[in-house]
Design brief:
The complex is a heterodimer of chains A (427) and B (303).
Chain A: H1 2-29, E1 43-47, H2 52-67, E2 73-77, H3 80-92, E3 99-103, H4 106-113, H5 121-125, H6 132-137, E4 148-152, E5 155-160, H7 161-167, H8 175-187, E6 191-194, H9 205-216, H10 219-226, H11 235-247, H12 260-269, E7 272-278, H13 287-290, E8 293-296, E9 308-310, E10 313-318, H14 325-335, H15 338-347, E11 353-354, H16 365-376, E12 379-381, H17 384-387, H18 393-405, H19 410-425
Parallel strand pairs in A: 1-2, 1-3, 6-7, 9-12
Antiparallel strand pairs in A: 3-10, 4-10, 4-11, 5-7, 5-8
Helix pairs in contact in A: 2-15, 9-10, 9-11, 18-19
Chain B: H1 2-17, H2 21-48, E1 51-52, E2 60-61, H3 65-71, H4 74-105, H5 112-124, H6 127-138, H7 143-150, H8 167-192, H9 196-204, H10 209-220, H11 222-238, H12 241-246, H13 258-268, H14 272-302
Antiparallel strand pairs in B: 1-2
Helix pairs in contact in B: 2-14, 4-8, 4-11, 5-8, 6-8, 8-11, 11-14, 13-14
Classes of the chains: A alpha/beta (427), B mainly alpha (303).
Chain lengths: 427, 303
């Protein structure tokens, strides 16, 4: 009861604060002429970037936007899990927040298909420098732009240069070399491949599935599979797991017991040799080892399959029911500028790439290498949940963790996966 | 004269029968609040369980389709079995442990306050914090495995939460750790209410400790037992935070409880209709167990 009182009180306090912010916003912008259709009050930005670094970066961004003297914005940071479960509620409410941090791809299209997202095609008119790939990724497939990408990152097999030198090994350039490398490392008493699919990060295992699938069956097959046009018990999916089985003995036995944060610690301490992971892991890495970190591209398995890479793209979308359409678009236009994207990169760990080609990235050799790998890719995928939906992700977690622990049951695992996925697709 | 007194008396009497507006308000306002915040959402839950709903589009009526799906849903059966295991182990052990601790700590001895406080302390911690502590202890390189290694039981070392054969039990332990303290306090209060004269009389008659326990303590604790049982059943069926924080029902559903399955169905798979049906199943189970017990208890006390 006391708790409810507290929340009710803080809710009222929040209302008061919003009111005050609206009043202040009115004062601040009273000097500049405003279009008549725009409602007063700040553009609300609902952010799921709750890690300390990313949160600071978002605060710096909104402050920079507010300082310009146009529309005002107010940032509301929510824990990622809460944000994810509440997003449908936010978007369908009568007075929704205006702007949301989110991911490009199918995971945003679900909401666009229900007509919940603001058409931001006119914001895109001023974004001529953006690549066609990003433009296509941000469209709803029916000619409207519904997403505004601000940055993206890459996945690779990361390792420590000093450790590879100590063990006398080199990054592989083919699948065969990759297997040999794993054998060599195992011979030296190192767990060759770290994973980190335990604890609350079972989704990390999906990176292996994604990459094996796009290397063996190609990116288009992968997307069709995730959209429900193909089946998880398809013989082609079986091929993915047969390939995976050949390297399973080299996986860290603790792979399904520890979360990816601990797995990266193991990697940096040299207990494991290498690890397929996204650049976000660097956020938590000590600054002094950042220069020692390098990666190689996930090895090519079938040279006939065009090489695709995972390049998850982050950005914003706006609610179709926003009462500050002009302000929201002004905010999105600002977010697309090199200035805004550079502010974000400088305030964060700096391992992401700006979506605007005119914006400067962090400029380290690691970032340059990642950028080059993505620019050479024939196709880009996002990630399992982004190319399908957050609802499909748990079905993958169940199937993949079971496969990692009981690889001989792959037939029943894939049948169960298909059944679970069908329930999600028909929901 | 008589008519006068009668006339004078009548309004006073009717005033006694008329319910005062303050009393009415004290009853009706909480009822309205309860109806709005509890009954109405509960009814909506029942309604949702008859629909297919993704949280965005309007709900679609499908009758008893969700309940029919439940009958053939392997994961639901697994979650039901795990919840039954949970109810028996968590409920049984916390009742026995709580009663044992209460019996040990009921007599006023030096330092007994410290032990009572120590056992009650886990109740004060938030369950999520408790889970974080235990998560650290269960890690492959955590305290439990280090301890096993140190005492020469390295063969028993285990990825407790990642192994499907141990995950469920590894989740029950922290929940028990907390519940025993809570049940202990309930029983301590119950034991304090027993008339010491009963024990004195028993001792004079030469009753053994065991006879005193079975003939005096247990029957006298009957009313506390029904409270403890209700608390245990409700807590078992709604146990969610520990399981979710430690394993999220994984690995591959091996520690799935009805509550975690309900949450992941509703809020991860966004199948809110089926999730609501699962919630109704949980409600029926909890309500059923408690009502059966209470009816029996009342019948016994009437007889």
């Amino acid at each position: 009861m006391g708790n409810e009182d507290l929340t009710r009180r803080s809710f009222l306090a929040g209302l008061g604060a919003v009111g005050a912010a609206a009043a202040l916003g009115g004062c601040a912008t009273s000097a500049t002429p405003k279009s008549a259709d725009q409602k007063s009050g700040a553009v609300t930005i609902q952010s799921n970037l709750s890690s300390p670094q990313a949160k600071t970066a978002m605060e710096a961004l909104t402050a920079a936007f507010n300082k310009r003297g146009g529309a005002q914005s107010s940032l509301n940071t929510v824990a990622a899990e809460t944000f994810r479960t509440q997003l449908p509620t936010y978007l369908t409410s009568a007075t929704p927040p205006d702007i949301y941090t989110w991911y490009a791809g199918s995971v945003a299209l679900t909401y666009a298909d229900k007509g919940l997202l603001l058409d931001v095609s006119d914001v895109w008119q001023g974004m001529g420098g953006y690549s066609d790939a990003l433009r296509k990724l941000s469209g709803d497939g029916k000619g409207k732009q519904i997403f505004l990408p601000t940055n993206y990152y890459w996945w690779g097999v990361f390792y420590r240069k000093s450790n590879f030198a100590k063990w006398g090994v080199r990054p592989p350039t083919s699948w065969a070399e990759f297997v040999t490398l794993a054998q060599t490392l195992k011979g030296k008493g190192v767990a060759p491949i770290g994973l980190g699919a335990g604890g609350n990060t079972p989704w990390v295992a999906s990176a292996w599935f994604d990459y094996l699938n796009i290397r063996i069956n190609g990116a288009q097959y992968h997307r069709d599979l995730l959209a429900g046009h193909k089946r998880f018990d398809d013989p082609q999916v079986h091929k993915v797991f047969e390939q995976w089985k050949t390297v399973l003995p080299y996986f860290d036995p603790q792979g399904t017991a520890i979360p990816f944060q601990d797995a990266t610690t193991s990697l940096l301490q040299g207990r494991t040799g290498m690890m397929l992971i996204g650049t976000f892991f660097a956020d938590a890495a000590p600054k002094d080892v950042l220069d020692d970190i390098d990666f190689f591209q996930f090895p090519v398995i079938d040279p006939a399959v065009p090489v695709a890479e995972e390049a998850p793209t982050d950005g914003f979308f706006a609610s179709a029911r926003s009462s500050h359409v002009a302000g929201a678009k002004e905010f999105l236009t600002y977010m697309a500028t090199p200035e805004a994207q550079e502010i974000y990169i400088k305030s964060s760990s700096g391992t992401v790439l700006p979506a605007n080609p005119a914006a400067k990235d962090a400029g380290t050799p690691l970032v340059a290498k990642g950028k080059e790998m993505l620019s050479k890719a024939a196709d880009l995928t996002q990630f399992f949940n982004r190319d399908s939906s957050d609802a499909l992700q748990p079905t993958a977690d169940t199937a993949l963790i079971k496969f990692l622990q009981q690889p001989n049951q792959v037939d029943s695992i894939l049948t169960d996966w298909q059944k679970a996925a069908e329930k999600v697709w028909s929901a | 004269m008589t008519t006068l007194t009668a006339a004078r008396r009548r309004p006073r009497r009717s005033a006694e029968h008329r319910v005062s507006p303050l009393l009415l308000a004290l009853v009706l306002v909480p009822l309205a609040v309860e109806a709005f915040w509890v009954f109405w959402p509960a009814l909506q839950g029942f309604y949702l369980s008859l629909t297919k709903w993704d949280g965005i589009s309007p709900p679609e009526q499908i009758g008893l389709g969700n309940y029919r799906e439940m009958l053939g849903d392997g994961t639901f059966h697994l979650a039901l079995r795990n919840t039954a295991i949970w109810l028996v182990l968590f409920g049984g052990l916390s009742a026995v442990g709580g009663l044992g601790a209460a019996l040990l700590l009921q007599r006023e001895r030096r330092g007994v306050g410290f032990y009572r406080a120590a056992l009650f302390l886990p109740v004060v911690f938030s369950l999520v914090a408790t889970s974080l502590i235990w998560q650290g202890m269960y890690q492959p390189s955590g305290m439990i495995n280090k301890f096993l290694g140190a005492v020469g039981l390295a063969g028993w070392q285990h990825a407790w939460l990642a192994d499907p054969s141990t995950a469920l039990y590894a989740v029950i332990v922290p929940a028990l750790w907390r519940q025993i303290g809570y049940v202990m306090v309930l029983y301590l209060a119950g034991l304090k209410g027993i008339d010491p004269a009963l024990y004195e009389a028993a001792r004079v008659d030469g009753a053994s400790w065991w006879q005193q326990f079975t003939r005096i303590t247990l029957p006298q604790l009957k009313s506390v037992n029904s409270v403890v049982l209700s608390v245990i059943v409700i807590d078992s069926l709604r146990s969610f935070d520990v399981a979710w924080a430690l394993t999220r029902g994984g690995p591959y559903h091996s520690s799935e409880l009805l509550s975690t399955y309900m949450y992941s169905t509703a809020f991860q798979s966004l199948r809110l209709g089926y999730g609501a049906a699962l919630a109704v199943a949980i409600f029926v189970l909890a309500f059923g167990v408690i009502v059966t017990y209470l009816v029996r208890a009342f019948r016994e006390s009437d007889a």
